[in-house]
Design a protein that fits this description.
The protein is an alpha/beta fold. The protein contains seven helices and nine strands. The chain has one domain: P-loop containing nucleotide triphosphate hydrolases (Rossmann fold).
Length: about 200
């Protein structure tokens, strides 16, 4: 039975970088699972890479077809953005290849409910809040149309979403401290290999 590794962390914790490096690690041979969102892509993001960027109409079609495994709606300063996982064949619990997805505690909990604790494994990345805020601001400044208000909303929402109470409820006991990227990446790789 394959494993689905769910990579999580607050905004600007380095999830996208870890995701790319873990996918590039040949000895892990992970298969990508790309989530869906109705939010617009950030500068440099490509459809089908970071997310499948879809319209609300497409989300409605997928829900009517019973294909949405889990969804999260966020009220942003730019309107409601939905992030969701689709049963589109990407997740194969009976397959031979382990998979990697970026998610939240909520999506992790729903995926684990559907596929089981032995199949869905958490990888929770933590970065000190001051450092995260600096990273988020630097990332937003690089955008053609920075969304500072949304960056602040998301930063504050993460405090609630990733509270100690919620981590405990989801049985997240191992936390990967991203204060030295290379060491943190090596630790994650070692633990993925240990699960095989």
């Amino acid at each position: 039975m394959s494993k689905l590794y769910c990579l999580m962390g607050k905004s600007a914790s380095g999830k996208d970088t870890f995701y790319k490096d873990l996918m590039a690690e040949k000895r892990l041979a992970l298969k990508t699972v790309v989530s869906y969102t109705t939010r617009p892509p950030r500068e440099g993001e490509k459809d089908g890479a970071e997310y499948h960027f879809v319209s609300r109409e497409r989300l409605d079609e997928l829900e009517k077809a019973g294909k949405v495994i889990e969804r999260r709606d966020y009220t942003t300063v730019h309107g409601t953005w939905t992030y969701f996982t689709v049963d589109d064949g990407q997740i194969d619990p009976d397959g031979q290849q382990d998979m990697l997805i970026i998610g939240t505690l909520e999506s992790f909990a729903r995926l684990r409910e559907r596929f089981g604790k032995t199949h869905v494994i958490p990888i929770y990345i933590h970065v000190e809040d001051g450092e995260r805020l600096e990273r988020a601001l630097a990332r937003e400044r690089r955008q053609e149309h920075p969304r500072y208000a949304e960056m602040c909303r998301r930063f504050l929402a993460d405090e609630k979403d990733f509270s100690q109470e919620n981590l405990k409820k989801c049985e997240i006991t191992e936390i990967y401290e991203n204060n030295n990227y290379e060491n943190c990446l090596k630790q994650i790789i070692r633990n993925i290999e240990a699960h095989r």
